[in-house]
Amino acid sequence: MDTVITKTLGTSYKTGGTSTAGFDCSGFTTYVYKSIGISLPRTSQSQYKTGTSVSRSQMRPGDLVFFNTLGNGVSHVGIFVGNGKFAQSSSSRGVIISSLSEKYWADRYIGAKRIMSTTAYKAVAYD
């Protein structure tokens, strides 16, 4: 379990945060991807415009998952870690692992995007 995501669990939430001093949602995804040499756009909306769309049944660890939490399109992003779960920087709890099947997230799910290669995702996969 010694992965980038595991090392960031518990990091506090910070609006605009992009480091282990505190993350917002897209700052967290940007940080994780940067750690393996992949550059992402800074906001959840711009991250949603990158990569290739992936169906829920085809998702694999490392895919980005997107949500509409504010009622006006993409406003939250996390990283799928497998077994129906995703890592995210929650505004109330910091970096945590959540279930895509939780009603709150299931109701707000927009889609998933694949950005990294099969070999790269193993560097961030949550065991």
Automatic annotation (TrEMBL):
PROSITE patterns registered for this protein in UniProt: NLPC_P60 (PS51935)
InterPro entries per record: NLP_P60_dom, Papain-like_cys_pep_sf, Peptidase_C40
Gene3D superfamilies for this protein: endopeptidase domain like (from Nostoc punctiforme) (3.90.1720.10)
Domain annotation NlpC/P60: ranges: 1-116
GO MF terms, alphabetically ordered: cysteine-type peptidase activity
Key words of the record: Hydrolase, Protease, Thiol protease
GO biological process: proteolysis
Source organism superkingdom: Bacteria
Family assignment from sequence similarity: Belongs to the peptidase C40 family.
Protein name: C40 family peptidase
Organism from which the protein derives: Paenibacillus agri
